[in-house]
Amino acid sequence: MEQLINMNDLKTAQPAITVYSQQSVESQASTPVASPVPSPVASPTAHNYEPLPPNIPQPQISLKQDHFKHLEHVAQPEVVRKFANPAPLGLCAFALTSFVSNAMNLYMANGTVTGINIGLALIYGGISQFLAGMWEMALGNTFGATTFCSFGAYWITFATLSEIDTTNPVVEKAIESCQAEVLMGIFMMAWFIFTTLMLLCTLKSSIAMFLIFFFLDLNYLLLAITHFHCGSSSGMVAALQKAGGVCGILAAITAWYNAFAGVFDQSNGFFTVPLGHFPWSPVHHVHQANKYKEV
């Protein structure tokens, strides 16, 4: 072989091992070591808030709508507001005022009872029933809000008209008696039309609720006819007025019955008050389906 490996050369190629004494180690430990130069890039754990150099791109955070989709399924705390049922209050206010007012039509009461009827129509039949309609509106019941507010306003208007007719003699002199009766007949006929519309809305409700508007509708119709026949014989007018009073009292009784059914519920009564339902009513179909399941 042209090249020969000398064993001495291999020995000299091995790294030299330096042996330090304890004194030299202590001298090196006492020598201050220069702190390393900080990196221009801040560490995630370091509290360095200096801006990054221009040659390093700034981190960009993009918030898209997809990042918040999971928040839609997070259960949010629900605010529970428990309202009492305002329907019995409105029905009782309507029933009591209608009973007293139609008892006057039935028995031809005197002026003293008329004054009592005005106060009752203004406070209980008017304001209380109107407030019940406002609470029905807060509960989302459009039918209850419309009927209670409307009939509450009717009793307030009725009390106002009765007060004007009894306390202002100038009006009585300016308008003849028959003309005033005709105007009152138009007023009653307008409420007959409104009550007929509300009657149609009760066809899917209970029979007891339907009977309220049925008797009330007849009451407005008969009283309107009574006021229109101001020039007819007194016997016919009295008969129509009494017939209207009977229908009004029946409407008041059925309203009290519906109010009792609303108050005499599971928390106050021992049984459910039957209201009756039409064969085409959705509630009737539910009852029939439950009977079939029990069988």
Automatic annotation (TrEMBL):
Compartments where found: Membrane
InterPro entries documented for this protein: AceTr, Gpr1/Fun34/SatP-like, GPR1_FUN34_YAAH
Keywords carried by this UniProt record: Membrane, Transmembrane, Transmembrane helix
Domain of life, per lineage: Eukaryota
Record-given protein name: Uncharacterized protein
GO cellular component, one term: plasma membrane
Entry's Gene Ontology molecular function annotations: acetate transmembrane transporter activity
Region entry Disordered, spans: 30-55
Record's bilayer topology term: Multi-pass membrane protein
Keyword Membrane attributed: yes
Membrane-crossing segments per the record: 115-135, 142-162, 182-200, 207-228
Keyword check for Transmembrane: yes
Signal peptide bounds: none
PANTHER family assigned to the protein according to its UniProt record, in alphabetical order: ACCUMULATION OF DYADS PROTEIN 2-RELATED (PTHR31123:SF1)
Pfam families: Gpr1_Fun34_YaaH (PF01184)
